[in-house]
What does this fold into?
Amino acid sequence: MRILFPTNLSEQSAETFDFAVHLAKKLHAELSLLHVYPVPMTLPAMDESRTADLADEMLQNAQIANEERLEAFKNQLVERYQGTYPDISATECHLRMGFVGEEVARHAEEIQADFVMITARRSSGLKRFLGGSDVSSIIRKCECPVITIPEQYHFHNMDKIAYATDLTFSDNEVIARLLLLGDKLGAMIKCFHVHDSNLDVENAIIKDFIEQYRDEANRRAITFDLVDNINIHDGIDYYVKNNNIDLLVVLKQKKYWLDIFEGSITKQLVFQEKIPMLIYHE
It folds into this structure.
């Protein structure tokens, strides 16, 4: 198993790496660092040959500078987390130039990452790497599951994992993955659906799920609940807080995810929840 950790080489990123280290230990996973830097801007020149030479020089200098920064960042992580994660010195470091979302998704596919882990924080101006727009882009473009970690969140045991289900046909695949994850983490899986109508129909679906996962439900590995709330975000937030949830799971649906994400429910959760989120893709 492999966890890809994109980083902007900041202190906040180094702090978030604490979560990656603990999760890697529990899942017996390898960690891989990735830093994406933007294409350097070239300056106007008098002739084309000089412009080409200047561009090549800037690209080479940018690569060298970012290689040095990435190596220094890894050394910082080794010094900080060697005691917790002895294998950290073997952590692979990768450098790519381009747009963050595209390059993270491409690299995750190349190394067959099982998870991409990122810090979810809002930022503005030039400090936008792994801020709102980049986080959104990574979630949209990556096909593997993405874990978002709130700023200044410190790892603790994940005893309760909540899956906010829309009661779709894709739920069984997600639940199967979560049961395996819960077994490795020693966590209970709590599936819940926020509704405001058709209670009889939704109750019937929940009963079908309980019957389907009777063995797991009997040993309290999984539960199913309905949450009555006309506002989906409020209903999810209420369930998370009142059940002491440690990890919130949602499913990115292909057909209308972009409208939903940009329109905000999952986007609000990513940037407003105070716990980590795991986002699967349909």
Notes: The two ends are 20 Å apart (CA to CA). Confidence is low (pLDDT under 50) at residues 123-131, 256-263. The beta strands are 2-6, 30-37, 92-97, 115-120, 146-150, 160-164, 188-195, 222-228, 247-252, 277-281.
